[in-house]
Amino acid sequence: MLLKTILNKCHKLKSFVYQNVESARYRSTDVFNVTVVPRKNSHALCSCCHNPAPGYDTLSERRFEFIPLWGYPVFLLYSMRRVQCSTCGVKVEEVPWADGKRELTKTYMQYLAFWAKRLSWAEVASAFHTSWEKVFYSVEYIVSWGLVHRSLDNIRAIGVDEVACQKGHKYLTVAYQIDRNNTRLLWIGKDRTEATIRKFFTFLGPVRSQQLEFVCSDMWKPYVKAIAEMAGQALHILDRFHIVAMLNKSIDEIRASEHKQLQADGYEPVLKKTRWCLLKRQENLTEKEEIKLNTVLQYNLKSIRAYLLKEEFQVFWDYISPNWAGKYLDRWCTRVMRSKLEPMKKVAKTIRRHRPLILNWFKAKKAYSSGIVEGLNTKIKLTTRKSYGFRTYKCTEIALYHALGKLPEPEMTHRFY
Ligand SMILES: [Zn+2]
């Protein structure tokens, strides 16, 4: 039958032969069954040590799901042999198309995992008439393979951050590689504690940790402390994105309380729906938001003063010399300290406390891709949001490595997608 020819072309097995193809019924569906037998004079391999070993017995026939063809499920049927290995004892043989006890062939798992990068897992399951669990196993398989085979050499710049994941304010600590030529998710840890960040450095190992040249993070104390201890030689940078986020948070606070106060005092609700006008960068405003912003700017409000201070701060990033940038920063902080805007003053104090780490940004400006941490965080949020099905931490972890880890994949002799 033609299917045999196709299989030999795209999925050739060295020590096995596609013997017979037949159309059959399986679980009330029309399927193709492909019987596989060992090639004559080929030796079975021990699944434990991967060496040839003499045969012991043969188990009953097993079914391995292959990529469906024109909507028909395709199964490879094979009776696994057991071998009497001189080193490992009696073991099931190793077969090239499948892994351990899994029912799916490696090729099919790689195929499903490919689509799981582009669609949600539930969509993949429905598109290929398979179960969510099978898609999960497939992604898990491809991710474990990738994690074992990826290279962790030449990592010079990393970013460490925390990401809120799902409801209940659960946090993940994430570590990215942010080198210009290679940005990817390196590591994920549960929670956001000092122990978590230390686990990351343990994972990276002392040699690689000491090769780091740049480490980017927010100013959270345990991060700063752990980074200084584990990678003290690296230039520790407080990234622009973290500082802007801090400024925005304080504006948000000021605006919310002022809005409440105005309402309580019976004034016109001028600050209504201004949240994004004040938080977004001016060039990103929609026309409507811009009009709103221009109107509200005419009022002498705390929120507006805070907004203008934030806008002034933007100039800071345009400096080239860290020295001049430092002077600008000091002047800005002084102005904020006189502003009577308490949340903003808190930011200024934090900035003063971390002045050297902030100025490191100018020293490292060209060495790593700034803003990449922010971009990767956004992608993480998208991935976790897409994933109502991720009931466990394990699922989230696998999905994130799959989406952002840039993991290598097993080589295929034929690309099925
Ligand atoms: Zn063995």
List the main descriptive attributes of the protein structure presented here:
417 residues; 16 helices; binds zinc ion; alpha/beta
Average predicted confidence as pLDDT: 88
Low-confidence stretches: none
Largest sheet, if any?
5 strands, mixed
Q: Quote the distance from N terminus to C terminus.
A: 23 Å
General description of the model:
There is one protein chain. The protein has 417 residues and is of the alpha/beta class. Helix content is 46%, strand content 22%. Strands 1, 2, 3, 4 and 5 form a 5-stranded mixed beta sheet that branches. A hairpin with a 4-residue loop joins strand 6 (157-165) and strand 7. The protein binds zinc ion (ZN). The site of zinc ion has 8 residues, from loops.
Set out the fold topology:
Elements lengths: L1 H9 L5 E11 L2 E10 L16 E15 L2 E14 L3 E4 L13 H13 L2 H7 L4 H18 L7 E9 L4 E10 L2 E9 L3 H11 L1 H6 L2 E4 L3 H10 L4 E4 L1 H25 L10 H5 L7 H10 L5 H15 L5 H16 L4 H12 L1 H10 L7 H14 L7 H12 L13
Parallel strand pairs: 2-4, 6-9, 9-10
Antiparallel strand pairs: 1-2, 3-4, 4-5, 6-7, 7-8
The structure holds zinc ion.
Summarize the structure.
The chain is of the alpha/beta class and 417 residues long. Helix content is 46%, strand content 22%.
